[in-house]
Design a protein that fits this description.
The chain is an alpha+beta fold. It is built from 7 helices and 6 strands, in the order αβαααααβββββα. The protein has a 6-stranded antiparallel β-sheet. The relative contact order is 0.22.
Length: about 220
């Protein structure tokens, strides 16, 4: 992915929207957000999200080749099976997924190049890796497969105003309106902190295969 160095409105008008996987960890401020606001009818992210939703929901073709110990598909299938047997504590499971994906990203991170493309889960497994938006799908689908509710786990686009970079992460909402963040590459943050613990980053979009929302500051925060 190429770095996104222009604000969202200019990106939409000039070069198209890119998640521009982050490359430098950052530290952070506590913000307060409404994570599930209705998007504008002119939201520049909506067409890109809609395109991914259509492709993600297509039937998955049968896998032709045999598995390999180094193959991401094999690792992913094995990891999910182990996690099902390992623990029933959701926070322990989610933290384990965070550790696993951040380790796998070292071997399976594949940059897009000059043209940003959002992979599907099957694309990521078939290609034995992807950049942040493809690797994030392993987290998103693993948590869903491990019993996390559809109203708890979401894909999210975050933005760093200091340099214009965008990044894809997974949000897990437990009993709080301040979600846990799992960054698939560990570039934005390591482990599994709350969004309010990550300085310098702003959440922009929250979405699934079926719906999307815009993230907006709460009235109290916007007033400040």
């Amino acid at each position: 992915m190429h770095p996104a160095s222009i604000r969202i409105t200019l990106l939409a008008a000039l070069i198209g929207l890119s998640t521009a996987c982050a490359s430098i960890p950052a530290g952070s401020d506590a913000h307060s957000y409404d994570y599930f606001a209705a998007p504008s009818t002119r939201d520049p992210w909506s067409p890109k999200i809609a395109g991914w939703q259509v492709r993600e929901l297509r039937p998955v073709p049968a896998v032709a080749s045999g598995p390999s110990a180094r193959d991401l598909r094999t690792k992913y299938t094995s990891f999910r099976s182990q996690q099902r047997r390992a623990s029933v504590d959701p926070q322990h499971v989610a933290a384990g997924v965070a550790r696993w994906i951040q380790k796998q990203a070292r071997a399976h991170y594949v940059p897009d190049g000059p043209i940003d493309h959002w992979a599907t889960l099957e694309d990521t497994l078939a290609n034995n890796g992807d950049d942040c938006d493809g690797l994030e799908l392993l987290v998103y689908h693993a948590l869903r497969d491990l019993g996390f509710g559809d109203d708890q786990v979401f894909r999210a686009i975050v933005y760093r105003p200091s340099d214009g970079q965008h990044h894809m992460v997974t949000f897990w909402f437990d009993q709080s309106d301040d979600p846990w963040v799992i960054d698939p590459t560990g570039a934005m943050t390591r482990g599994m902190p709350r969004m309010s613990e990550i300085a310098g980053w702003v959440p922009l979009k929250v979405f699934t295969e079926h719906a999307e929302w815009s993230v907006r500051p709460t009235l109290a925060f916007a007033a400040r």
